[in-house]
């Protein structure tokens, strides 16, 4: 009996040539393909030089590891997809609700208000919220006085400092305060309504589409109201 001494001969005995043989030799072989190749190799081996048991065990072990990793990756992919679907379902319940987000821009709608919070890492005096229009002009300055450490809410009804009302549109919201004679810049969270929820591509996660602000990552939401 003639021995098959190369993998090429084995592939040819299975009717695989050229690109097919190249594909069959990759780690993308299925378990069925692997067993078929192994049986063929054993059938055509040189009787005077049979395959060593350790070599046989090594081949099976290597394929099992690769196959196991592939199955594990598939399991993680399925788990990740399931998690995203569950999160999307939960997040869909936020449509129509308001959230606080770390964005210094807010939309003033006709007859509406802009709400948010100013965050302080310690007590501070002369805490103020500054509202600026698109040109950078100061529209309103809201005096919150002296505040302890923590977050303090604010509301702007669209009224300017001169008593007139600002037109609907986007406004920049910042804050300032003083501590021990020095100016500090507290953080600001603005409130916005959730219009819809988007499921991003791989690694992107969920995004909330906020009225007047656009998309923001669900993980960046500071509070749901």
UniProtKB/TrEMBL annotation:
Keywords: Bacterial flagellum biogenesis, Cell projection, Cilium, Flagellum
Source organism superkingdom: Bacteria
GO BP terms in the entry: bacterial-type flagellum organization
Residue intervals of the FlgD Tudor-like domain: 86-221
Domain FlgD/Vpr Ig-like: 110-180
A Pfam family annotated for this UniProt entry: FlgD_ig
Keyword Heme applies: no
UniProt family annotation: Belongs to the FlgD family.
Described purpose of this protein according to its UniProt entry: Required for flagellar hook formation. May act as a scaffolding protein.
The protein, known as: Basal-body rod modification protein FlgD
Protein's organism: Sedimenticola thiotaurini
